[in-house]
Amino acid sequence: MARDTLTGSRIRERRIMGGLKQADLARRAGISASYLNLIEHNRRRIGGKLLLDIAEALDVEPAMLAEGAEATLIAGLREAASDLPQLDVELDRIDEFAGRFPGWAELLAERHKRVMALERTVAALTDRLTHDPHLAARLHDMLTTVTAIRSTASILADSDDIEPEWQARFHRNINEDSARLAETSQELVRYLDAVDDRDAGTDSPQEEVDALLASHRFSFDEIEQGSATPEDLADRIGGELSTVARRLLRAMLEQSAADTAAVPYEAGIAALRSHGPDPFALAPVWGCDPGLAMRRIAVLADPAGLEPVGLAVCDASGTLTYRQPLDSLPLARFGAGCTMLPLYRALSSPMLPITTLVRPTGRIEERFRAYAYASPLGPLSANMPPLLRAQMLIVPAPAASSQDAAVEVGVSCRICPRPGCPGRREPSVLSRGL
Amino acid sequence: MGKRVLLVEDEPNIIEAIRFILNRDGWRVHTHSDGRDAVNVVRQTRPDVLILDVMLPGKSGYDILRELRTEFAEAELPVLMLTARGQMKDRELAERAGASRFMTKPFSNADMLEAVRSLAGA
To answer: A68 lies in which domain range?
Structure first.
């Protein structure tokens, strides 16, 4: 969503937060209340001197009203703050902080992400030490050999009256054991050296793939043109990935190739332009199921010149297996997401096309249309319940819908301020902020 | 004749060293290296002290001890457990299985001797 279309919303949020009446702000800025009302509902563009006046009246930086702060950045800051709830962080001014010091805010959010990543590395390494059977076996070998050496050596050192044949025997044992110890230690070093550092990385394979797809903007010309097989492409672009992540990437690309074969690039774009990004309308046009339509819309929206869309796919456990997020509607990076997402509702009503308006919690006037649909994964077998997969396409809703009722959704409970949410799993660490 | 120790351990050079130390101290030392039939060997040997390694081929020392304590009512037999891991949970496992004492590898000969002596005297 173009950011400048929301300047009015931000003015309204700021004004309400400051406890100002519309009339008061209008008077201070030298305009009529009804004109301000139009501005606040994004029906009039605003810029130049008037923006400066209103910013001054609201005591905020003009840039903050014009650009706002990235929702992802805000979410990152909230997450950082939520880790240390004992600190009295000014959560009600988080937007202001991000707006006035975008660089520092970014730094803080990035540092927090890094800390989280390092914590997970530590956990992964601890796991490795505790559960790696090869490592455990080697260490056991070494300790056993050391035990034999220590015991035998101290017999030789402490007793001066050992029979010569025993003495010779113990010397031989020590010699044997020390050779074995040397060999086991070298093996251990080789093993530790050979451990694939990439597999020991901080990201889960899914996160690696998510990051790679994001860097390619979720679209691959080679797949669209059919100029490379998924296998070759996965090898080429996935060189840096861990083995598991590369396998995930390949499966993803294979799916894309199959989708492209069903709905080719040119025809897809033409239909998308004439029907708009509605998967339930496009599925019959394309002659495919709504899930496939969602995936094609997610790829083709950009080349078709539409506003960016988001796509989330989850398995029956609710775990996100694909995430193409929107800036203003971030998806949980790890852990469970917002249970209010229509994505999860789809899981309880398989094969039912679901569509509803959603709005990111705390943001008063942004609306998105969500399309969700769950369908069986793989072939059906007799008397076996199908394994489901749910997909959700998120499309920016027209400004006209900004006042319509919408499901309020967050990123994850901990950093979600929504009061009285029926789906809340754990308390929010936030006071109500912007 | 001295008291009898049964050492159930699968590492030959450790067996040799322990046997030597205990022999010199006046003990008769029997040894066995397989976990699978260790319970039977214990019941036939009827030692005064059992030294039992945890990691044995075929059956773990914990299982052997549990079987002895529960199925064969060997409640009185003093048992010294040897393990290469000194973590809290290993100690707990050993205690729960019914070990009288617990010793981590590598150990000093003096400690081993002291442990066996005190177990036999107890």
So the answer is: 3-103
